[in-house]
Amino acid sequence: MTQPAPIPEDLRRSPAAYGGLSVGVIGWALSPVLIRFLSEPFDPFTQAFVRYSCAALALTLLCLIWLPRQLADAVRQWRPLAALSVVLVVFQYLLTAACFGATPTIAQLLLKLGLLFVILLSFVLFREERSVIKSLPYIVGTLLSLTGVALVLAQDPGSLAPRIDRYALMLFMAAVCWAIYVVTARRLAFGLHPVAMFTMLAVYCSAGLGLLSVLFGNPAAVLGLDRDTSLLLIFSALFPIAAAHPAYHFAQKHLGSAFCGSVELLNPLITFILAVMIWPEERLNAIQWIGAVALLTGSFLVLRSRRHAIELTE
User: Fold this and answer.
1) Is 225 helix (H, G, I), strand (E, B) or coil?
2) Long-range pairs of 70-77 with CB within 8 A, sequence gap ≥ 24
3) Could you tell me where the beta strands, DSSP code E, fall in the chain?
4) Can you give the residue ranges of every domain in the chain?
5) Per-residue pLDDT tens for 137-157?
């Protein structure tokens, strides 16, 4: 009797990859809300340090028990991972500080500019992706996204003038850092186990953020936390950081960057729903809703232009 053909490994991993993508998208949607909720007891440096330290500890224990060989491989790649962690430290500080003053929804929307910067960095670094930036969908998507950003920042319904404050500038810089992180991590993820890779990133980030907390923050603030705040802090470390980052890298490896990036556009909607449940006054006005739609539509066109260009080269 003829044996049935084995199921390809990629198909067997698809449910796990989709599950990982869901964890990544939901975890990152929660992140600005949790940062804002935890802004009262902490300064930005200390909050970022404590959250990443908890995530690094949990991931290190997990890898020592279940992934020791993969962790050893990541340790040997300490130079690129340590360099990448510097970018992640800057990103995490900028995001945390910005969420202390900007609404979670605005923060999430402005971070989507990182998709544009991902393409620009890929244009510089990867020859196979240089046709993307010349395509009509990319140009239209970029213009639409930038128009959307201007409208999202128009906080006065009677005026279309964008309000660019220091929190908006922080989010713009965070979007650039995020693009650098995504482009670099995507390449590293193909040679390293995503959990082990991010474990070492979290360890290096914890060291960097810890130094910044000692120099510019107040690490002693963690000693005065009540039980509920402590539990929320641990959750904000385990789900949006320890679980979401490795899960997304795993999904990106098996489902592709373009598809994962498209699904990631759901982040602002999830963030908005959660934020309005906690802070009803943080609703978007009509102009900002139009801007949000324009920004996300433009980001989608940018992602489609990249996917189309890759298909043409295959």
Assistant:
1) coil
2) 70/192, 70/193, 70/195, 70/196, 71/196, 71/199, 71/200, 73/192, 73/193, 73/196, 74/192, 74/193, 74/196, 74/197, 74/199, 74/200, 75/200, 77/188, 77/191, 77/192, 77/197, 77/200
3) none
4) 17-313
5) 888 888 899 899 988 988 776
